[in-house]
Amino acid sequence: MSERSGPSGHSGDSGYSGDSGYFGYSEKDVQREVSDLEAKSTTAARIFDLRRIIGGLFVLYGVIVMITGLTDSAAEIDKAQGVNINLWTGLGMLLLGVFFLAWLKLRPTPPPTPETETETTPGPRDEPDDTPAS
């Protein structure tokens, strides 16, 4: 075989060109695309962190319930045996929401670590040794 064969062992015009990589993409293009995808993945992981969603909702609902508690009448407070339950529940929700948001700020989501080839493909050291020990 005098023609250069591609990665799958096929020769001829299979879209493989020796120096320019697979299907006309250079190694530099592939590396740039991989780093762009890693950056997008990291951003998505930070945006959809559950601590942000839970903390934001608890802060929002806590403020709403606290405002309701501040505007309660004496009759509504008497229904709860003299305890302004809306005020205390709203304060608790607000504190829980602030806790989640502070936790997010103090310990942000670490970026995902890229897998290396040694982690995904077994190497010669990973195979069992059939030679008897002497």
Any overview of this molecule?
Helices cover 55% and strands 3% of the residues. The protein contains 5 helices and 2 strands. The chain has a two-stranded antiparallel sheet with strand order 1-2. Helix 2 packs antiparallel against helix 4. The longest helix has 22 residues, at 85-106. The model is unreliable at 1-6 and 9-18 (pLDDT under 50).
Strand tally: 2
Low-confidence stretches: 1-6, 9-18
Helix-strand pattern: EEHHHHH
Instruction: Estimate the mean pLDDT confidence.
Output: 76
Helical segment count:
5
Strand content: under 5%
Give the fraction of residues assigned to helices.
55-70%
Structural class: mainly alpha
Distance between the termini: 45 Å
What spatial order of strands do you see in the largest sheet?
A: 1-2
- What shape does the CA trace take? elongated
Radius of gyration: 30 Å
Largest sheet: 2 strands, antiparallel
Key phrases:
3% strand; two-stranded antiparallel sheet; disordered N terminus; 5 helices; mainly alpha; elongated; 134 residues
Short description:
The protein is mainly α. It has five helices and two strands; from the N terminus they run E-E-H-H-H-H-H. Strand 1 and strand 2 (21-22) form a beta hairpin.
